[in-house]
Amino acid sequence: MTRLESMLEGTPYVAYLYGYPHKTAYRPFTPALPLEDVWAKERRDALFLYLHVPFCEMRCGFCNLFTAAGPKEGVVQAWLSALKREAGRVKEALGPATFARAAIGGGTPTLLDVAGLETVFDLAADLGVDPRAVPMSVEVSPETVDAGKVAVLKARGVDRVSMGVQSFLESEVAAVARPQKTAQVEATLELLRGAGFPTLNLDLIYGIEGQTPDTFLHSLKAALRYTPEEVYLYPLYVRPLTFLGKKSRAWDDLRLSLYRTGRDFLLAQGYTQVSMRMFRAKHAPAARGAVYRCQEDGMVGLGVGARSYAGDVHYSSEYAVASREVRGIIQAYSERDTASFGEVRYGFVLDEAEQRHRHLVLSLLAEGVCPGAYRQRFDTDAKDDFPMLAELEAHGLARDVDGVFQLTAAGVERSDLIGPWLDSEAVQKRKQEYAWR
User: Radical SAM core domain: which residues (predicted)?
Assistant: First the structure.
């Protein structure tokens, strides 16, 4: 039995792969790498700027994002001061750079007050990001958005807001330790929709204890009342050190059927499926600005918890989930001086083999692998470099469509199995050795 066949006999929900490699494969650099050297060979004409706000009003039971709940004002201000120091040092190291995309995420960016939000936007502008010229996305939450903050987002030219609703039923969000009121969610959605943002994205979760196809459809229908341009459907994952993870419960039974329920409903409503999680409406605006290719172009991450992709070096702050560990990392970040931000201390160096893995994984889990693009970049053929792809075809999980190697519907719903299956042996080993903290 091959490794793929063995995995196919288990859960289709192995891990959500939103980048390659995962942070659990990162390790300390000894000695630290100079920031200028890390960016020296990277193209800087189509970068992605990501600013991470590591704070939330509360921490949901399923959350393993790098965030601290209910921070004191002094902690937030110390973090903002450090963010300014980091941004200045990064700007110096980058030199002339053009950004094709920008996003402010977290955590919950709208936990910041109006002055804090303005500061973050000012830092992005100082680096050369103009939201009126490039797409800019910001994550919000029902508990932290108000008219004043929405006015800031509009004034700054934000064209996409994303909100994690998870469910429109209070009993379901309570089951994942999220004390959310549906009336507040609806009022926030009215506020956001009324502000006229070109793209509204809503996140929903399936696999919550007690959830059924009927209750999931209830949330989907409630979400579509606000005509979101994008909808993301996330399977519930129970990860180590989260509230649900500590309960040691199994959550796998209904996830696949709930996924199919949601997928079929959104497709019937005219949405296009972009990936396992992402669905785009017909009325969604066309992409604007310079082209950004995640397989090739770099990402500048600012703020503790943010990742950066600079050619063959991916780096970030250290990764943790447990509250005490996260708070300690935030404090250490806030105490760093400007010079220290010129050092890259923690990450992963991608040799050519790993760069091929990354291109393959990110392509296959999205639009598919284009042989011409792969050959142009690596001067080889993807199927020659990865004969294991034939296994996907043999199991009906992928096929060639108009010359592009794409996942089938069966493959898309197993994206969270196929992604980890494509990990290199070195990445697999590092992930297995990682000690959760």
Answer: 41-277
Q: For residues 299 and 143, give the distance between their C-alpha atoms in angstroms, rounded to a whole number.
A: 29
* SS3 of residue 168 by DSSP: coil
Tokens of 268: 């019937």
**CA 95 centroid distance within chain:** 27
> CA dist 10 to 44, 222, 252, 253, 397, Å?
42, 33, 10, 12, 16
Residue closest to 53 by CA, chosen among 159, 144, 152, 186: 144
Q: Which of 69, 209, 55, 37 is nearest to 139 (CA)?
A: 55
Asked whether residue 296 carries a pLDDT value surpassing 80, the answer given is no
- Residues 282-291 have pLDDT tens digits of 999 988 776 6
Gap between the Cα atoms of 112 and 153, Å rounded: 12
Burial of 3 (0-12, 13-18, 19+ CB in 10 A): exposed
Task: Give tens-digit pLDDT for 211-269.
Answer: 999 999 999 999 999 999 999 999 998 654 444 444 444 456 678 999 999 999 999 99
For the cut 80, the answer to whether the pLDDT of residue 419 exceeds it is: yes
d(CA 326, CA 139): 20
What's the length of the chain? 437
User: Cα(118)–Cα(161) distance, rounded to whole angstroms?
Assistant: 16
Closest CA to 52 of 333, 272, 322: 333
Burial class (CB in 10 A: 0-12, 13-18, 19+), 41: exposed
Residue 295 and residue 411: Cα distance in Å, rounded? 20
Give the list of residues 6+ apart from residue 227 with CB closer than 8 angstroms, or none. 193, 200, 281, 283
Inter-residue contact 351 to 92 (CB < 8 Å): no
> Does residue 344 have a pLDDT over 60?
yes
Query: Contact 80/119 with Cβ under 8 angstroms?
Result: yes
345/34 Cα distance (integer angstroms): 9
